[in-house]
Each structure stands twice: as structure tokens, then as C-alpha cells.
Amino acid sequence: xFKLIKKNGNARRGEFTxxxxxxxxxxxxxxxxxxxxxxxxxxxxxxxxxxQVELSNTYHLHLRPGDxxxxxxxxxxxxxxxxxxxxxxxxxxxxxxxxxxxKIQEEGVYFNSHIDGKRIFMGPExxxxxxxxxxxxxxxxxxxxxxxxxPRNYVEKSVDRTTRWLERCAKEMExxxxxxxxxxxxxxxxxxxxxxxxxxxRIKHAKEISKFDLDGYAIGGLAVGETHEEMYRIIEAVExxxxxxxxxxxxxxxxxxxxxxxxSRGVDFFDCVLPARNxxxxxxxxxxxxxxxxxxxxELDTKPIDEDCTCPACQHYxxxxxxxxxxxxxxxxxxxxxxxxxxxxxxxxxxxxxAIEGDYFEDYKMGQLENWGGRA
Length: 376
Description:
single chain; alpha/beta; TIM Barrel; 8-stranded parallel beta barrel; 3-stranded antiparallel beta sheet; 15 helices; 16 strands; 42% helix; queuosine biosynthesis
């Protein structure tokens, strides 16, 4: 399923074959939590800006419109009119983000819905069932993401429970993929490495989950309170203990400089809401770093966001016009900036792949970091 084409240092250029197409890695997955990119970006737009993988969220789609409704409509691909790979997050991150609205037990997690307060339950089996109904290409195992820092004794107990949950996820997915009414009988499963900022716990957990021989492995529980240096240290500690013949996915990390540093440490998959969220607030990425279109200096600026960019926004509109749209509270402003930012990220990953193949990734990385000058 995963073919390693080239290594340049620890940076890896690969191809991951799925039932919905081949993913060229390293790859950035464009986040559409509710089967839509926030900012009025359509599936057709995603094709145009070079998106390979769309990411949606199990917990949120379970609440609305409901995973059983999506199954009746033919699965997530038909529902949102997207025929390329989709990865669904398991709902495990909501164990972290909804910490004031949940209770963790061995069987799973009890939530109060953030929409109406309704009591809901999600465990490994429920998460797998929901993701099977959604019929995503890649399903994530149900886990607990702990904040950093957390007490060592709690992290150890949480990681042990996450391992037990993974075993239940694997068994449930095997059962679901064999059922006659399952839409995607070749749904893949990625396990998630946890352990906070404790190297030894991370390494032990990486060894344990590697025994399951899954389709891929994620490094979770980062970008949730630790420093960038701690993040890089954890990646370096864990990477040697994850199977080299499977893709590695760094969950929720999306600052461009973080992506470059993680690729240089052997990571293949990335996702983050950051480019879309920044775009909706007028913060856009360029070859010289991020700029804020609300700044008065762009009022008469007739240049595109980035003069070398081929996205729809840069091909047709000026900074001055997009700034005007924001000041006038026109939705088109958000749409254009989200399109630009996602195009920037997809193009960045394309250039990273070319640099690895050409044996100049380290030079490319240093050149980009110098261009951005800390404004990435």
C-alpha cells in the first residue's frame, strides 16, 4: 500500500495506494470538518487547487447530519461529491477539546453535545461504526489526546487505555469490513501514538501499536501546549520505532515551518485548520511569509496576494480589492483567502516532494525558512 520512492536524509517521498486513488506523499490534508471547507470552498474548488485528501470529523458528522443519514445517501464521497481519498478523525481529539463536557471511562467517553447538550457516548466500537457508515478511505483509531504538560502517572494510564482501545478498534473494523451492507469494505485503519512529552512512554507505545500491523501510524497529542522544540524532539524519538513501510501522520500540525521540520524528520501526512482559519480572518501566506490584508498599507495595493501564485484569487484579484471585501464584510473575501491559503499549502507539499526527489530538500527547507524570516 505504501511505496517509498526516495529518501533524502530522513525526508521521505512516497506513494500510498488506497481504494479512492493514490496519495503522493508528503501530503497536506485539507480539513473539512463537516464535509465542507469553511469559507465557501466547494469540492470542485479542491480539485482546482490541488487537494489530494479531504479530512472530516467523526464526532461532528455523527451529530449532524448523522452518520446513518450519510450512509443512506451513499457515504461521504457521494454526499460531498468528492472521489479522492477522505480521512476521518475518530472523535478522539474531542476527548481533549471538549474536556469540560466529557467523562472518560474504560468503555469509552460520555459527551454532552456542544450543540444542544444532549448526552452521547462514543467508544472504540462506536467510532468505528460511525466511520464505517461515513465510508471514508482512512479511519483513525479512537484514542485520548492529553494536554501538554500532563502528570506522568495520568499519561501512562491514558496511553495504556489507548492501546486497549486500539485493539478493540482493529477487531471492530475487521468485522465491519466483512459485512454485506458496508459501503467501503477496504476501509483502512491508522493507529495513534500518544505519550505526552515523555520520550520513554512515546517509544514504548510506538513499539506496542506497531505490533498491530495497521495501514498507517499517526503521532498524536502534539501542538497542544508543548514548544516546537519539544514537538521536534518527540518526532525524532518516535520515528525509529514506527514501521518504515507504513505512512506516518503528524496530527493537527500545520504551521509551514513545522511541516518542513517534520518532513525532515520522516513525517508523511499532515493536517490543520490553520490555513482556512487564517484565510477567513485576512491572514494569507506568501513566499515571504504571512501578511494581514486588514493592514492599511494594502488599501491601494494593486498586486495579487502573491505575484508568483497561480491560485484563482491571485490570478484575478488585487490585495486592495480583497481588503475592501473584508472591510465591507463580503463573504467573497473569506472564500478567496481560504482558496489562496489551501493552494499555498498544496503547492508547498508539491515543492517538498520535488525537493526530496531531487536530493536538495535540506537546501529547500533552509531557503524557505530564510524567505519566511520567522513569519511562517
